[in-house]
Amino acid sequence: MTDKRVLLDEIDFYLVTDSGLSKKGTLSDVEKAVAAGCRIIQYREKSISTKDMILEAEQIKALCGSESIFLVNDRVDVALAVDADGVHIGQDDMPMDAARDLLGPDKIIGLTVHNVEEALEAERMGADYVGLSPIFNTSTKKDAGDGIGPESIRPVKDAIKIPIVAIGGINKKNSESVIIGGADSLVAISAIVCSDDVEKETREFIDLIQRTRSQI
Ligand code: TZP
Ligand code: MG
């Protein structure tokens, strides 16, 4: 596998899948988002068997091809089974060092953090990026807690060198505050997968982020 970590620095928009919220299904969402230029996909699936996850992950990997980074949420075993580009893990998932031992130095590991302290620790432990969460209140992840606000991004940005991926309640209307706040990349779930036209929505989101960046 080529080392796709270099792509992490160039990514504006990051899609996380959600089969429960999706209108057209996860595979369709990934296909459309990649077609629209989304260069990182996280497969987040909590409701099917491991066997079915592996089958679906194989298909998502094929849809991502060599253009888009393909990460698996939580499941280091699934990422290894399909030779994904890496994983995204939370504070209560497999510890970073154990995940790194299993995945090796070339795979991408993203870690969810909620504050400067956790971000510093994530960087120290060798995370490739942090997912700062939740920026706004969201009903997509029931235990996400209260939104920390876009003003919480800058102190984290000033503390670490690895990219910050902002997640939680982000949509086209509030994206400007997240970009100005200092996020390197914006994640959306419901703002994309609940749309009737995932390709158009993704394209508009990416255009908006790029336009906003060019103006600040
Ligand atoms: N982790 C923190 S908030 C969140 C996850 C998976 C859900 C984000 O979903 P949405 O629909 O973009 O608010
Ligand atoms: Mg998790």
UniProtKB/TrEMBL annotation:
UniProt-listed Enzyme Commission number(s): 2.5.1.3
Pathway this chain belongs to: Cofactor biosynthesis; thiamine diphosphate biosynthesis; thiamine phosphate from 4-amino-2-methyl-5-diphosphomethylpyrimidine and 4-methyl-5-(2-phosphoethyl)-thiazole: step 1/1
Keywords, in A-Z order: Magnesium, Metal-binding, Thiamine biosynthesis, Transferase
Organism superkingdom: Archaea
Keyword Disulfide bond: no
Catalyses which reaction(s): 2-[(2R,5Z)-2-carboxy-4-methylthiazol-5(2H)-ylidene]ethyl phosphate + 4-amino-2-methyl-5-(diphosphooxymethyl)pyrimidine + 2 H(+) = thiamine phosphate + CO2 + diphosphate; 2-(2-carboxy-4-methylthiazol-5-yl)ethyl phosphate + 4-amino-2-methyl-5-(diphosphooxymethyl)pyrimidine + 2 H(+) = thiamine phosphate + CO2 + diphosphate; 4-methyl-5-(2-phosphooxyethyl)-thiazole + 4-amino-2-methyl-5-(diphosphooxymethyl)pyrimidine + H(+) = thiamine phosphate + diphosphate
Binding site for Mg(2+): D74, D93
GO CC aspect terms: cytoplasm
Requisite cofactors: Mg(2+)
InterPro entries: Aldolase_TIM (IPR013785), ThiamineP_synth_sf (IPR036206), ThiamineP_synth_TenI (IPR022998), TMP_synthase (IPR034291)
An example Gene Ontology molecular-function term: thiamine-phosphate diphosphorylase activity
Positions of 2-[(2R,5Z)-2-carboxy-4-methylthiazol-5(2H)-ylidene]ethyl phosphate binding: T138, S139, T140, G169, I189, S190
Free-text cofactor note: Binds 1 Mg(2+) ion per subunit.
UniProt record, GO biological process: thiamine biosynthetic process; thiamine diphosphate biosynthetic process
Binding site for 4-amino-2-methyl-5-(diphosphooxymethyl)pyrimidine: Q42, Y43, R44, E45, K46, N73, T112, K141
SUPFAM superfamilies: Thiamin phosphate synthase
Thiamine phosphate synthase/TenI domain residues: 13-192
Class of enzymatic activity (EC top level): transferase
Its job: Condenses 4-methyl-5-(beta-hydroxyethyl)thiazole monophosphate (THZ-P) and 2-methyl-4-amino-5-hydroxymethyl pyrimidine pyrophosphate (HMP-PP) to form thiamine monophosphate (TMP).
Family: Belongs to the thiamine-phosphate synthase family.
The protein's name in its UniProt record: Thiamine-phosphate synthase
Protein's organism: Methanolobus tindarius DSM 2278
Higher taxonomy: Archaea, Methanobacteriati, Methanobacteriota, Stenosarchaea group, Methanomicrobia
